Amino acid sequence: MPTPEYAEKAKKVRTALSFLTDERSGVHPAALPVLGLAALGLGLGSWREHQELCLLALAGAVGTRRREGELKMERNFARDTKAFRAPGKQEEEAGKVQKAQKEARNHRGERMNATTWRWKSDKRVFLLPVELVDHARQLFHLSRDLLAAVTTLYTENPREDGKVVTSFRQLCRMLRIQTSGKVYEEMSLAFAILRMFTIQHQDLVLELDKQGKAKKTGDYTFGFVDTVGVVTRVRNEKTGKLEEVPLPKRQVEIQLSKYYTALLRTRAGGKDLLCSVPVAALEACRKLGKRQVRPAKDLVYYLAGRGGRARVKLETLVEVLGVHPRKPCEARRTCENILNALKDQGVLEYSATGDLYEITLVREGKPTREEETAEER
């Protein structure tokens, strides 16, 4: 059993590493192993404790390197084709979704004037405040990007309280987005969407078996984020006055919901519920035409959630991309326009045999290699 003194030293090392691995610290990643070990000087202990703390320090250093090229995401929500999509008139007219407006409570029990929708053949009901629905149609893809970034930060420094502390600058660096006033405004709106977004009758994995498959699930009213706070002013100790913090440096505190935190902690037999999303792929998606960005990102997340590869039929690909060809005969052309655009950007490779597509996500210029190819069931 660890002594109280050891537990306190470990806590101090984690705090030091949390600062060192935060991009706001200005510490170069190459220096992290040395600086991480230097954090051990916070206290003396037995050689065994010293070894364990060394491993803890090195684990913290390795985490930052992993963040540079990929983001972490809960795999079921990564491949979910409906969770991050607000319906438009085309879906309503086609009978693909049922919408309503009513007083409702979000996942935190807060009352709101909500727009609710339920997709055909989906038992879940999705809720957002009426005033955020139009924004969600444009920014849901950014909300998912931010969730992936926050998920990554949490998995690298998991706090018991489920809180993640970061900054707008760090989030932009992780997503490889150029900072600007417009970007910060969009990110603020995307966080507002993420905080209020609620899913009723969401199946959640409660327990995994040793093979990493669901052993127990439950039906919940679910949300990803409980609160988002931004530090806008800090007191100047010389003048004693509160001063505005520059936008890039503003600290952002995100409180993950207890259910989402539980999903990120679920683990058995060395398996968990996480998947890896290549940042380069998301960056390449933003270079496409405006109408292609959202469906392109949806496909990247879907493939990441399926292990990097998927074999799907044309009708499933239409659903994954969320596109609306005016005629059935246009479906192939619409989908392949997006596939070819992503292929030209080095995001994926694909082949088609009739209406069956085999698509492979490319990471760092090479196709991902998984033991199995995920097939449509």
Topology:
Blueprint: H1 4-20, H2 32-38, H3 47-67, E1 70-74, H4 75-78, H5 89-93, E2 97-105, E3 111-119, E4 125-129, H6 130-156, E5 163-167, H7 168-175, H8 181-196, E6 198-208, E7 214-222, E8 225-230, E9 233-235, E10 242-244, E11 251-256, H9 258-265, E12 267-268, E13 271-272, E14 274-278, H10 279-285, H11 290-305, E15 309-313, H12 314-321, H13 331-344, E16 348-353, E17 356-363, E18 366-367, E19 374-375
Parallel strand pairs: 15-19
Antiparallel strand pairs: 1-14, 2-3, 3-4, 4-6, 5-11, 6-7, 8-11, 9-10, 12-13, 15-17, 16-17, 17-18
Helix pairs in contact: 1-3, 2-3, 6-8
Folded structure, characterized:
The chain has 377 residues and is an alpha+beta fold. It is 42% helix and 27% strand. It is built from 13 helices and 19 strands. It has a five-stranded antiparallel beta sheet with strand order 2-3-4-6-7. Strands 15, 16, 17, 18 and 19 form a five-stranded mixed beta sheet that branches. A three-stranded antiparallel beta sheet has the order 5-11-8. The relative contact order is 0.11. The model is unreliable at 21-32, 55-67 and 365-377 (pLDDT under 50).
Note the main attributes of this structure:
five-stranded mixed β-sheet, single chain, globular, 19 strands, 13 helices, 377 residues, disordered C terminus, alpha+beta
Short description:
This protein has 377 residues and is an alpha+beta fold. The chain has helices at 4-20, 32-38, 47-67, 75-78, 89-93, 130-156, 168-175, 181-196, 258-265, 279-285, 290-305, 314-321, 331-344; strands at 70-74, 97-105, 111-119, 125-129, 163-167, 198-208, 214-222, 225-230, 233-235, 242-244, 251-256, 267-268, 271-272, 274-278, 309-313, 348-353, 356-363, 366-367, 374-375.
